[in-house]
Design goal:
It is a single chain. By secondary structure, this protein is mainly alpha-helical. It is 64% helix and 2% strand. The chain has 10 helices and 2 strands; from the N terminus they run ααααααααββαα. It has a two-stranded antiparallel ribbon with strand order 1-2. The longest helix has 23 residues. 32% of the residues are buried. The C terminus is likely disordered.
C-alpha cells in the first residue's frame, strides 16, 4: 500500500498540538486563527483539499465543516468511519452511529478496535473505558464511544477524570485513523 509523506510544516503543527482531541466540534471553525493556519498549511503543502488526509487534519482540531464536506460524498469505508467521527463531534449522535454502521469492511473495523483496545490498555484507561461501556471484553465499539460522548455532553455527573480520559481516547482514535490514512499500516493484509 502507498504511504503519504507528511511534509515538515504539517508534522511540526501536529507535534505542537495537545495530546488530546476535542470531544465537541469547534464552532469558530475555519475562521478561527487555528483554522486559518491549517488552511494555509494545507494549501502550502500541495495537499488536495478534498483528500482524507485533509479531513483528518481538520478533525485533529475539531473543525468539522471542511472535514464533513470531504467525507460526505466519500465512497470508501474509511470515509464512512470519518463521517461518523464528524457527526459525533457535531453532537448528531444518531447520525454518527448510522455512519459507523456503514463500515462493512471487517478488517478496517477490527483493526481500529484492536488498536484502540491496545492503546487504551497501554495508557491505563481500560477501567474508565469499560465503565463507560465502549470497551467490552477486548473490543472497542465506535457506536458505544458515541453513546459515551452523548452521555458526557448531556449529563452533569461526568467527572473531570472521565472527560480528560475521553479526550485522550478520542486522540488515540485519531492516531489510529491517521495511520490508516497516511501509512496504511494499521490494516492487516487480506
Amino acid at each position: 500500500m502507498n504511504s503519504f509523506p507528511v511534509n515538515e510544516k504539517i508534522q511540526e503543527w501536529l507535534d505542537s498540538l495537545p495530546k488530546t482531541l476535542p470531544i465537541r466540534a469547534v464552532h469558530s471553525g475555519v475562521t478561527s486563527a487555528e483554522g486559518k493556519r491549517l488552511s494555509g498549511l494545507i494549501a502550502d503543502s500541495g495537499l488536495a483539499t478534498d483528500s482524507l488526509v485533509s479531513a483528518m487534519l481538520w478533525l485533529r482540531v475539531g473543525i468539522i465543516e471542511p472535514a464533513h464536506d470531504i467525507v460526505q460524498d466519500g465512497a470508501t469505508q474509511l470515509a464512512s468511519y470519518l463521517h461518523g467521527v464528524v457527526h459525533r463531534l457535531e453532537g448528531d449522535y444518531w447520525n454518527a452511529k448510522y455512519w459507523f454502521r456503514q463500515v462493512h469492511d471487517k478488517r478496517l473495523a477490527q483493526s481500529i478496535s484492536m488498536a484502540m483496545f491496545e492503546r487504551i490498555e497501554k495508557e491505563g484507561l481500560l477501567a474508565i473505558a469499560k465503565s463507560l461501556n465502549f470497551v467490552q471484553g477486548s473490543q472497542f465499539s465506535s457506536a458505544e464511544f458515541v453513546t459515551a460522548h452523548e452521555q458526557m455532553n448531556h449529563q452533569a455527573k461526568t467527572t473531570e477524570e472521565q472527560r480528560v480520559a475521553m479526550e485522550s481516547m478520542a486522540w488515540f482514535e485519531w492516531e489510529c485513523l491517521w495511520q490508516v490514512v497516511t501509512n496504511m499500516t494499521l490494516l492487516p493484509p487480506g
